[in-house]
Design brief:
The chain has 208 residues and is an alpha/beta fold. Helices cover 38% and strands 21% of the residues. The protein contains eight helices and seven strands. It has helices spanning 3-9, 16-28, 37-51, 65-72, 90-98, 113-116, 136-144, 173-187; strands at 55-59, 79-84, 106-110, 124-129, 147-156, 191-196, 202-207. Strands 3-2-1-4-5-7-6 form a seven-stranded mixed β-sheet, sandwiched between helices. β4, α7 and β5 form a beta-alpha-beta unit. α3 runs parallel beside α4 (65-72). It is globular and about 40 Å long. The relative contact order is 0.13.
């Protein structure tokens, strides 16, 4: 038994819907490893439970697995806006959301986040960044002033399969994007931050 298997046996189970979504992704999609999965999903839910955000923004929906986990713990009247750039994922995503009792909490936006975010109204209490790694800094700059003081910004894949420990090729724009983002976060005194060595790295930032 691995450590992760032990952990999964001793934490809350994922719902039947999430379990089926995970299986569907591995059968129907080309890059199923991008799905958040059981452990990260429970952590995302717990962070929402602790933070009690009323408005959440997710950049990068993919299958909607993480979206549903975030939505599970929203307080009454809370909502999550989630943005997916790849329009070919829309049918899969809407199918999953349509099966959920949480669908009324979720607003799906299909398009480039850099175009969609300026059109969204209001501020957010939590932002989860999990999209194009080359643009993490741009996403961060775009949402920062929209995050309420005391709010949280999460960023996934910030260890990037440990490629952050190597010298990347000039052509490896995704690794370069993650390195640039991690350095930007390190120097930002407007936040408290920590990188959790969960799966591929999850950065948690608290806005002061």
């Amino acid at each position: 038994m691995t450590v992760e298997e032990y952990i999964l046996r001793h934490i809350d189970e994922e719902s039947e819907l999430l379990s089926e979504l995970y299986r569907d992704a591995h059968v129907r999609l080309v890059r199923p490893r991008m799905v958040s999965g059981h452990l990260q999903g429970r952590i995302l839910k717990m962070l929402v439970r602790l933070q009690c955000p009323r408005r959440v923004l997710e950049i990068g929906t993919y299958t909607g697995y993480a979206t549903l986990c975030l939505a599970e713990a929203l307080p009454e009247g809370g909502e999550i806006h989630t943005i997916e750039k790849e329009d070919e994922m829309e049918d899969f995503i809407r199918e999953q959301f349509g099966r959920s009792s949480l669908k009324d909490r979720i607003r799906l936006h299909v398009g480039d986040a850099l175009d969609v975010i300026p059109r969204l109204e209001g501020s957010f209490d939590m932002v989860f960044i999990d999209a194009d790694k080359r643009l993490y800094c741009e996403y961060y700059d775009l949402v920062f002033d929209r995050v309420n003081p005391g709010g949280v910004i999460l960023a996934d894949n910030t260890l990037w399969s440990e490629k952050v420990l190597e010298t990347p090729l000039p052509s490896d724009r995704q690794t370069l994007g993650i390195l640039r983002f991690n350095e930007k976060i390190r120097q930002d005194r407007r936040i408290e931050k920590v990188i959790l060595p969960l799966r591929d790295g999850l950065t948690v930032c608290f806005k002061l």
